[in-house]
């Protein structure tokens, strides 16, 4: 089955409160050369998602920033729509699909996967969290500039060649500030409408937005920034005991993007918590998100001294 994979995200927040949902994604059955050229890998690129910004027109402008609540509301509405199909759709009823199945394997019903996970391991709660956390972690254009990441607006359709000399497109610019983005977007919107008029079309011609830098370089910079922020916000404390999560396999280390999890036999190498309350809260979060085997974990106290890294 063909499906779409959402590998990463870096939403951009504008000064007027709107969000530009930039995502790194691609289809599972399309391939390209890896950055090193040593092997083939699934295709992916950065772009502004139009899935949940109220932009249903195939010819509409693609770099459409919207208020955060519009995105979250649209995602919730889509989840509810698929849940209702269990009662209204004849095929759903014939196959015996339940609301619980839709929530647990939401990606299978919609043809979307998060990270390296398969569609069957992309839950509705995890999918909603993907967009909510993208909004929460959004950066300004200036913050991206400090990371060495820059937006650009451009046209890409071959149909533009026929109007290239009738309506000259704006020059592509490396965008470094919020004000510059809004100014450039205004120029491209005007050009898009002028192109449509020159070609006798009612709808504005499409333009797109992505990052100037290569997709893998942008991803590396985002990962470095997040790691640096985590390191700055952590401190080491010495404790006489700590808490872990344990099941029949061993002690939890982390959940992978593929949907599975890592575990170890020795608790000191697993994920550790200061208190039982923190461990229980994390366990409940896993269950709520529908993570694989989430309900098998047990909060376990280890009465051994250790050094833990905790939030400062």
Please explain how this structure is put together.
The chain is about 35% helix and about 20% strand. With about 300 residues, it is of the alpha+beta class. It has a four-stranded mixed sheet with strand order 7-4-1-8. It has a two-stranded antiparallel ribbon with strand order 2-3. Strand 5 and strand 6 (about 40) form a beta hairpin.
Ordered list of secondary-structure elements with their pairings:
Layout: E1 4-9, E2 12-13, E3 19-20, E4 22-27, E5 31-33, E6 40-42, E7 45-48, H1 68-88, H2 90-95, H3 99-104, H4 106-110, E8 112-114, H5 124-136, H6 141-146, E9 151-154, H7 178-198, E10 208-211, H8 215-232, E11 234-239, E12 242-246, E13 251-255, E14 261-264, H9 276-289, E15 298-302, E16 306-311
Parallel strand pairs: 1-8
Antiparallel strand pairs: 1-4, 2-3, 4-7, 5-6, 9-10, 11-16, 12-15, 13-14
Summarize this structure as a short list of keywords or feature phrases.
two-stranded antiparallel sheet; alpha+beta; 312 residues
């Amino acid at each position: 089955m063909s499906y779409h994979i959402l590998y990463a995200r870096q939403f951009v927040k504008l000064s007027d409160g709107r969000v530009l949902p930039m995502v790194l994604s691609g289809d599972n059955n399309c391939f390209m050369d890896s950055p090193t050229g040593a092997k083939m890998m699934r295709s992916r690129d950065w772009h502004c998602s139009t899935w949940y910004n109220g932009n249903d027109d195939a010819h509409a402008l693609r770099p459409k920033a919207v208020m955060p609540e519009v995105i979250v509301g649209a995602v919730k509405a889509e989840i509810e729509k698929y849940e209702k199909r269990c009662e209204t759709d004849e095929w759903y009823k014939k196959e015996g699909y339940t609301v619980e199945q839709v929530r647990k394997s939401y990606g299978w019903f919609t043809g979307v996967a998060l990270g390296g996970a398969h569609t069957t391991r992309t839950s509705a709660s995890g999918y909603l969290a993907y967009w909510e956390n993208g909004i929460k972690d959004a950066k300004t254009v200036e913050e991206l500039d400090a990371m060495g990441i820059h937006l650009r607006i451009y046209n890409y359709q071959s149909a533009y060649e026929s109007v290239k000399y009738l309506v000259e497109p704006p020059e592509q610019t490396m965008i470094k500030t919020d004000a510059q983005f809004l100014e450039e977007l205004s120029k491209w919107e005007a050009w898009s409408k002028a192109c449509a008029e020159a070609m006798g079309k009612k709808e504005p011609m499409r333009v797109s937005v992505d990052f100037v830098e290569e997709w893998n370089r942008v991803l590396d910079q985002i990962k470095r920034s997040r790691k640096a922020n985590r390191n700055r916000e952590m401190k080491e404390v010495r404790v006489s005991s700590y808490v872990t999560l344990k099941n029949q396999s061993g002690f939890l280390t982390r959940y992978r993007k593929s949907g599975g999890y890592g575990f170890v036999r020795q608790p000191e190498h697993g994920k550790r918590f200061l208190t039982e309350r923190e461990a229980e809260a994390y366990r409940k979060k896993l269950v709520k998100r529908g993570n694989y085997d989430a309900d098998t974990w047990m909060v376990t106290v280890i009465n051994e001294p250790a050094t833990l890294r905790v939030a400062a």
